[in-house]
């Protein structure tokens, strides 16, 4: 069979041009009521549990994310709308600018994928659904809600609705993407234009998609086996265990964070184990220089200041002192600029790297650490957040250990450059 070439540049241009049709998804009482009702249904049916990692595709201005958070799930949202992104971030919600058809998350990291009134915006829903399948764990749950065609609201005429399909076609596409539909229904509602209908599909990742390779040390080649073994040694050497880290008292930071909104975020269930781990790492050193690269709102810098004898040198694109009283943060030096030109990196005992997560700066920094002869510990956040970060983690040749079980769900890793 002759293979016909695909012009990916033309496809990319076409997709980018369509983004001019994006509009903000402002909240309405009607949509919020449906959202609350269907999330309650997932909870009652046992499909959504405390601690579940939830991806909200097309998260709008965050109502679903807030609801998932109240239920003690761990939600992450994606949107292409800049206004929606800014609203969500003002609410301190974890949201990324991302195309639903090209998710930058690693395989199988979410328990639930919630997609309400977004899939109809895909020009190739079968491909988009296959992406949903990829990022869901084995047995993960998919919730899709889309507008029905030919109702009083005529959704098929909406300028950026490209896939307003019939119910049977949606079921077919979901099944072809590796899911089994376990529930489908129609939601009828009255609008100013007349009666309208939304289709709801609840599906689970097929058992055929659940086959995962068994990771056994006996299957590893010698170099991989060495990495696993030395990784265990890192935990032993530095006392990295839940028991040790659990002894960290985060409440001492209450006086450092004078803004109530910031304080609530710092102690949120989703993040407190992460900050407890960071604080514990600071106790491994005394009178040391510690770098925090990519502090964002400043929380990681505060956590690293747990041992007051250390000096924390924090770099980001903006000043972060507004989160607390400067007098209580006197061992933290906030900087804006080129961190790799800072000569003090050479003598740092610990570096935390949490930047743009596309692999570019991470690789540049890694090469620089080699160049200057850095011999300390490197702590990496979000090593399983997306494919570029996983690729970056896999290229590291020093002794390292994946300590995600002790930190944040998106991946935590520690690297010993003295090796």
What is the rounded Rg? 23 Å
Element pattern in H and E: HHEHEHEEHEHEEHHHHEHEEEHEHEE
Summing up helix and strand content along with how strands pair, one would put the structural category as: alpha/beta
Could you list the spans in which at least 5 consecutive residues all have pLDDT below 50?
210-232
Overview of the structural elements:
The chain is of the alpha/beta class. The chain has 2 domains: 8-209, Vaccinia Virus protein VP39 (Rossmann fold); 217-416, Rossmann fold. It contains 13 helices and 14 strands. The chain has helices spanning 8-18, 29-44, 63-70, 82-90, 125-135, 167-176, 222-238, 242-245, 260-266, 272-282, 299-304, 360-372, 387-395; strands at residues 53-57, 74-79, 95-97, 110-116, 136-147, 179-191, 194-205, 289-293, 311-315, 332-335, 350-353, 377-381, 399-402, 412-416. Strand 11 (350-353), helix 12 (360-372) and strand 12 (377-381) form a beta-alpha-beta unit. The protein is elongated. One of its GO terms (molecular function) is S-adenosylmethionine-dependent methyltransferase activity.
Brief write-up:
The protein has 419 residues and is α/β, with parallel strands linked by helices. Helices cover 32% and strands 21% of the residues. The chain has a seven-stranded mixed beta sheet with strand order 3-2-1-4-5-7-6, with helices on both faces.
Relevant terms:
alpha/beta, seven-stranded mixed β-sheet, 13 helices, 2 domains
Q: Topology, pairings included?
A:
Elements: H1 8-18, H2 29-44, E1 53-57, H3 63-70, E2 74-79, H4 82-90, E3 95-97, E4 110-116, H5 125-135, E5 136-147, H6 167-176, E6 179-191, E7 194-205, H7 222-238, H8 242-245, H9 260-266, H10 272-282, E8 289-293, H11 299-304, E9 311-315, E10 332-335, E11 350-353, H12 360-372, E12 377-381, H13 387-395, E13 399-402, E14 412-416
Helix pairs in contact: 2-3
């Amino acid at each position: 069979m002759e293979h016909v070439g695909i012009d990916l540049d033309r496809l990319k241009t076409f997709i980018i041009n369509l983004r001019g049709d994006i509009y903000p998804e402002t909240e309405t009482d009607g949509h919020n009521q449906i959202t609350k009702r269907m999330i309650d249904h997932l909870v009652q049916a046992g499909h959504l549990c405390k601690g579940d990692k939830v991806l909200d595709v097309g998260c709008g201005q965050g109502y679903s994310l807030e609801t998932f958070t109240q239920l003690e799930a761990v939600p992450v949202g994606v949107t292409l709308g800049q206004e929606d992104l800014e609203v969500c971030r003002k609410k301190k919600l974890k949201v990324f600018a991302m195309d639903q058809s090209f998710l930058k998350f690693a395989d199988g990291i979410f328990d639930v994928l919630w997609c309400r009134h977004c899939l109809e915006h895909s020009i190739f829903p079968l491909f988009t659904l296959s992406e949903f399948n990829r990022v869901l764990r084995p047995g993960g749950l998919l919730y899709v809600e889309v507008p029905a065609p030919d109702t009083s609201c005529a959704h098929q005429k909406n300028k950026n609705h490209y896939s307003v399909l019939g119910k049977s076609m949606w079921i077919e596409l979901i099944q072809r993407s590796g899911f089994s539909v376990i529930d489908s229904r129609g939601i009828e509602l009255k609008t100013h234009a007349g009666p309208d209908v939304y289709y709801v599909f609840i599906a689970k990742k097929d058992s055929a998609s659940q086959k995962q390779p068994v990771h056994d040390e006996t299957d590893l080649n010698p170099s991989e086996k060495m990495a696993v073994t030395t990784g265990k040694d890192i935990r032993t050497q530095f006392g990295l265990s839940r028991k040790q880290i659990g002894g960290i008292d985060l409440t001492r930071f209450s006086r450092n964070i004078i803004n109530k909104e910031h304080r609530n975020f710092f102690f949120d269930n989703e993040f407190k184990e992460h900050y407890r781990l960071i604080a514990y790492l600071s106790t491994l050193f005394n009178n040391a220089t510690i770098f925090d690269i990519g502090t964002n709102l400043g929380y990681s810098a505060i956590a690293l200041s747990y041992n007051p004898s250390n000096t924390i040198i924090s770099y980001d694109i903006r000043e972060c002192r507004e989160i607390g009283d400067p007098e209580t943060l006197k061992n933290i030096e906030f900087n804006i600029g080129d961190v790799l030109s800072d000569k003090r990196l050479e003598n740092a005992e610990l570096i935390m790297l949490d930047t743009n997560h596309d692999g570019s700066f991470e690789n540049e920094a890694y090469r620089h650490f080699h160049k200057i002869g850095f011999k300390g510990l490197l702590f990496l956040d979000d090593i399983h957040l997306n494919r570029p970060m996983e690729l970056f983690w896999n290229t590291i040749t020093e002794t390292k250990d994946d300590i995600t079980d002790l930190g944040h769900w998106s991946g935590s890793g520690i690297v010993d450059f003295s090796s």
